[in-house]
Amino acid sequence: MSKEGKILSLTIPTYNRAGYLKRLLDSISRQAIEVSSYLEIIIIDNASTDNTVEVVNDFINKVPFAKFIKNDSNLGMDGNFKNALNLHLLNISGC
User: Fold this and answer.
1) Are 89 and 46 in contact (CB under 8 A)?
2) Dihedral angle over CA of 2, 68, 89, 3, nearest 10
3) Which of 3, 52, 53, 60 could form a disulfide with 48 if both were Cys (CB 3.0 to 4.6 A apart)?
4) Are 42 and 32 in contact (CB under 8 A)?
5) What's the helix, strand, coil split of the chain in %, to 5?
6) Quick check: helix, strand or coil at residue 12?
7) Which residues fall within 8 angstroms of residue 69, CB to CB, at 6 or more apart?
8) Is-contact 42 67, C-beta < 8 A?
9) 89 vs 15, 82, 92, CA distance in Å?
10) Model confidence, pTM
C-alpha cells in the first residue's frame, strides 16, 4: 500500500492495557475500513505481559492494513513514546 494520500496517522503506544486497547481498537475498526485509503495505524507494544498481542492480532484480522510492532524489552513509557514517534517519522519520510 502506498503512503501517498495518507492524511491521518494513528500511532498507538501501549503496555499492559489490553482491555482499554480492545475498546479503542473496536471503535477504530468500525470506522477504519471506510477511510483506509487515507489512514495508517501503527500499534507499538512495550513488551506487554497481558493479552495485548491477541487483542492486536484480532484487530489486524479486521483491519489488515494496520501495523504491529512489539518491543523486545520494556523501554519505559518515555522510551516507548520516543520509539513510536521515531517509527512514525521514519514511516512518513519514506526511509
Assistant:
1) no
2) 10
3) 52
4) no
5) 50, 20, 30
6) strand
7) 42, 43, 44, 45, 87
8) yes
9) 21, 10, 5
10) 0.81
